[in-house]
């Protein structure tokens, strides 16, 4: 059976990762801006500090913790940096530009519909990055349209892509990025949400749990499953294991396993497959142990490390022939 | 809407008296039925479409890496069935002769022994590859894809300006221009029967398959590109996509046991045919430029062994060397025993002392070209150059006159072109594309390039040129 060009597979895998990252960062910025506003009257200091979450969920941006105490200036600085910066490799603009570069390299695998939508998104966002003056309202618009356009690109991909290796690598990139960010989000937020707050802090506490769910596009799904009751363990379980949550870690790992199984159908088991099998089995059979672990955030950290190992094994096996 | 016609040279749409030629009447009427606002709206739509689809070329030089849209003028150029018949026969004749010439140069060299072409012109140019002497590509085909640049002289006759036997580019724009015009000005097609061009990728795939190494029934075909920063990268990826072939770079390929393999997710897989869009020099660092990171070590040996087809074959450039061009009519007579169907332009050769002296004395009247130059680089258009430009060029010419040829300024034909305010005459050329496999086929039409600036002769995409859709009519209008 004819394989896909290794460099093509790598680019399409990263196309998936960058699209997922662009949408994830844009969503996170929207969520942080909203929670920051929501709690500003209750806890101005936290309203400023909450932006640091971004630095932990998307580490490596090179940006430091907020210096001043003005929440508006902090919000402005973070949104500008993570939306428009061309040097920050985690910014939305960088991800869209990189996704487009990946798409140009593998254009023969893409459909015209998918490429045009991605190119349009890049051109539109690039106009913002080139603009000398851009205010907060315009940045909000840019966040909204980028998310919408990324959804449009995914729609075009699902509707028009050939069901072959290319789509598998794209999906693999997407779910690895998604699982990894969900795990980092849990690692950052669990120490807070698993501690019972004082009665007076409850409004902020629940606002932060809602924000956490929104950050992985899961608040509505959670409510549909569990109603309005924001029980912290229930939320943790939802984001780690619930089959109804598209960003749940186990859902992502199952999707990844399905793609790898199809890719390797009839072949001896490969290293990424073994690593993934081990992790998937743990998630499948040790749900209670994981949730009951004394430090759930540490466990999330360990799982995140294992996801990175799987990513590296995939890169070595498929992209470095 | 105002239509201006050309005051000098041949105007394809208007008679010298300024009347619309019958061929163009329906087209002019169609445009006349649209007002300026509507034309502007459609022009904007087409520009957005080009930008959004990433139909671009990449600049070199100061703006290296910058992507630009190749401007498209929506007024199509029309070629009658009768005119096309002459062009087609002329191009087929020329491509046949050029291939016989190449096959002879790399084997028996009758043409040199018979002094058809001066030895030194062949051997002193970089294009002739001694390493390939004795090599016969599959079916004896060297130039699988040829772009022949044509002009229309003052009488409207098509004349050959040059051949492109190495990596002729532009065919992707032919196909995209047609798509674009269908979308933006569908009504223009109502009154003309236009021959389709969409089959080109299939034709290309067929000829590549035909020339695959012996015994490879289902050959793996790949398009070889220098990479994303090459000026014609869009075209490379376009052709790969349309042919359903992988687009590979040198780093994706390895040669083992004189066979070429590409690195895939399932290990190494053999490649049988490389439609390469990379110059000879960079193909194989073992044989040519040892610093090349674009090439594949061992590729030439695999080619010589007949284990991989390279299209166009390395060494084909000798046939389109600008210094060889003046001898092509003799090449046609020698190999085919026929007179050339398409005439070509009188050419002075820098290596001939008399011609060099003529070039020096008439620099301001001539178009002087660097023999190895392409894309308008290294070219001087004497009549439109300043004194300083002429003086600077003369210095370069005197340093290496053998590197240049010169031709009188042949007036290009003019074609109505939308300027934003009206329709004005602009100079155009034509590059039909011929494909050589089981016979030679010429894509009906080709790339019409247009000098968008008033008075300009430069049609190259990198220097202010644009393109048009080129219509070849199914049958001539009554």
What share of residues of chain A is helical? over 70%
- How many discrete domains of chain B? 2
- Name the structural class of chain B: alpha+beta
Mean pLDDT across all residues of chain B, rounded?
93
Percent in strands of chain B = 15-25%
> How many strand elements of chain A?
0
Whole-number tally of structural domains of chain A = 2
Folded structure, characterized:
The complex is a heterodimer of chains A (321) and B (478). With 321 residues, chain A is mainly α. Chain A has two domains: 1-161, no CATH class; 163-321, no CATH class. Chain A contains 15 helices and no strands. The longest helix of chain A has 34 residues, at 6-39. By secondary structure, chain B is an alpha+beta fold. Chain B has two domains: 22-345 and 410-472, no CATH class; 346-409, Dna Ligase, domain 1. In chain B, 28% of the residues lie in helices and 23% in strands. Chains A and B meet through helix 1, helix 5 and helix 6 of A and helix 8, strand 7, strand 9 and strand 10 of B.
Compact overview of the structure:
The complex is a heterodimer of chains A (321) and B (478). By secondary structure, chain A is an all-alpha fold.
List keywords for this structure.
heterodimer; A: 321 residues; mainly alpha; 2 domains; globular; B: 478 residues; alpha+beta; Dna Ligase, domain 1; 5-stranded mixed sheet; 4-stranded antiparallel sheet; 12 helices; 28% helix
Write the layout of secondary structure elements.
The complex is a heterodimer of chains A (321) and B (478).
Chain A: H1 6-39, H2 44-49, H3 52-57, H4 71-84, H5 92-105, H6 112-130, H7 136-160, H8 165-193, H9 202-215, H10 219-226, H11 232-241, H12 249-263, H13 271-285, H14 287-292, H15 296-319
Chain B: H1 22-32, H2 36-52, E1 56-58, E2 67-69, E3 72-79, H3 81-105, H4 110-113, H5 119-124, E4 145-152, E5 158-164, H6 171-184, H7 200-210, E6 221-224, H8 233-243, E7 247-248, E8 253-256, E9 259-264, E10 267-271, E11 273-276, H9 299-304, E12 309-311, H10 328-336, E13 348-349, H11 353-361, E14 366-370, E15 380-381, H12 387-399, E16 404-408, E17 413-418, E18 423-431, E19 433-437, E20 439-442, E21 447-451, E22 465-472
Parallel strand pairs in B: 3-22, 6-7, 6-11, 11-12
Antiparallel strand pairs in B: 1-2, 4-5, 4-19, 8-9, 9-10, 13-16, 14-15, 14-16, 17-18, 18-21, 19-20, 21-22
Helix pairs in contact in B: 3-10
């Amino acid at each position: 059976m004819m394989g896909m060009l290794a460099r093509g597979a790598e680019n399409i895998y990263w196309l998936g990762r960058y699209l997922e990252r662009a949408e994830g960062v844009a969503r996170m910025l929207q969520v942080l801006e909203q929670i920051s506003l929501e709690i500003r009257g209750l806890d101005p200091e936290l309203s400023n500090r909450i932006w640091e979450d971004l630095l932990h969920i998307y580490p490596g941006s090179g940006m430091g913790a907020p210096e001043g105490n003005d929440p508006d200036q902090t919000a402005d600085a973070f949104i500008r940096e993570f939306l428009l910066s061309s040097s920050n490799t985690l910014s939305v603009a960088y991800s869209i530009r990189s996704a487009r570069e990946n798409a140009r390299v593998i254009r023969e695998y893409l459909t015209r519909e998918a490429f045009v939508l991605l190119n349009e998104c890049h051109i539109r966002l690039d106009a913002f990055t080139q603009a000398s003056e851009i205010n907060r309202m315009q940045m909000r618009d840019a966040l909204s349209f980028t998310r919408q356009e990324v959804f449009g690109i995914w729609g075009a991909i699902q509707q028009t892509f050939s069901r072959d290796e290319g789509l598998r690598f794209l999906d693999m990139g997407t779910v690895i990025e998604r699982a990894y960010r969900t795990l980092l989000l849990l690692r950052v937020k669990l120490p807070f949400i698993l501690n019972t707050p004082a009665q007076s802090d409850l409004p902020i506490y629940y606002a932060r749990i809602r924000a956490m769910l929104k950050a992985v596009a899961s608040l509505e799904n959670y409510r549909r499953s569990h109603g309005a009751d924001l029980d912290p363990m229930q939320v943790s379980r939802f984001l780690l294991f619930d089959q109804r949550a598209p960003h749940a870690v186990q859902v992502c790992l199952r999707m990844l396993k399905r793609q790898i199984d199809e890719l390797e159908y009839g072949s001896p088991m490969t290293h990424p497959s073994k690593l993934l099998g081990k992790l998937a089995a743990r998630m499948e059979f040790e749900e209670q142990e994981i949730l009951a672990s004394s430090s759930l955030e540490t466990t999330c950290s360990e799982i995140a490390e294992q996801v990175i190992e799987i990513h590296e094994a995939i890169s070595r096996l498929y992209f470095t022939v | 809407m105002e239509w201006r016609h050309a005051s000098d040279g041949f105007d394809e749409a208007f008679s010298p008296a300024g009347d619309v030629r019958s061929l163009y009447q329906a087209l002019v009427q169609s445009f006349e039925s649209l007002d300026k606002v509507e034309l502007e709206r459609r022009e904007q739509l087409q520009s957005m479409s080009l930008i959004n689809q990433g139909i671009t070329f990449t600049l070199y030089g100061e703006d290296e890496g910058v992507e630009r849209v190749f401007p498209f003028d929506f007024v199509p150029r029309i070629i009658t069935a009768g005119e096309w018949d002459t062009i087609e026969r002329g191009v087929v004749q020329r491509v046949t002769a050029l291939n016989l010439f190449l096959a002879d140069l790399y084997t028996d060299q009758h043409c040199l022994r018979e002094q058809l072409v001066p030895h030194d012109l062949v051997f002193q140019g970089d294009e002739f590859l001694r390493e390939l002497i004795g090599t016969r590509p599959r079916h004896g085909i060297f130039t699988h894809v040829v772009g022949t640049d044509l002009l229309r002289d003052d009488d409207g006759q098509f004349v050959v300006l040059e051949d492109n036997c190495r990596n002729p580019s532009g065919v992707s724009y032919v196909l995209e221009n047609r798509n674009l015009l269908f979308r933006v000005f569908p009504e223009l097609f109502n009154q003309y029967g236009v021959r389709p061009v969409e089959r080109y990728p299939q034709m290309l795939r067929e000829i590549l398959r035909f020339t695959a190494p012996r015994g490879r029934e289902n050959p793996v075909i790949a398009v070889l590109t220098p990479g994303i920063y090459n000026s014609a990268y869009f075209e490379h990826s376009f052709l790969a996509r349309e042919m359903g072939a992988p687009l590979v770079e040198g780093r994706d390929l390895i040669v083992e046991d004189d066979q070429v393999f590409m690195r895939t997710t399932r290990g190494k897989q053999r490649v049988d045919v490389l439609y390469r869009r990379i110059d000879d020099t960079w193909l194989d660092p073992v044989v040519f430029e040892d610093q090349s990171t674009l090439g594949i070590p061992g590729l030439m040996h695999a080619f010589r062994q007949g284990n991989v087809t390279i299209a166009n074959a390395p060494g084909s450039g000798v046939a389109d060397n600008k210094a060889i061009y003046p001898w092509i009519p003799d090449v046609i007579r020698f190999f085919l025993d026929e007179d050339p169907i398409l005439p070509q332009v009188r050419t002075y050769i820098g290596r001939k002392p008399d011609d060099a002296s003529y070039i020096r004395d008439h620099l301001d009247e001539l178009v002087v070209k660097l023999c190895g130059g392409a894309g308008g680089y290294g070219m001087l258009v004497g009549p439109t150059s300043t004194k300083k430009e002429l003086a600077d060029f003369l210095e370069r010419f005197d340093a290496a006159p053998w590197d240049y040829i010169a031709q009188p300024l042949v007036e290009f034909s003019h074609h109505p072109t939308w300027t934003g305010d009206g329709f004005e005459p602009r100079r155009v050329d034509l590059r039909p594309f011929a494909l050589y496999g089981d016979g030679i086929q010429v894509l009906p039409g080709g790339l019409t390039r247009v000098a968008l600036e008033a008075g300009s002769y430069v049609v190259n995409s990198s220097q202010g040129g644009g393109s048009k859709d080129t219509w070849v009519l199914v049958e001539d209008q009554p």
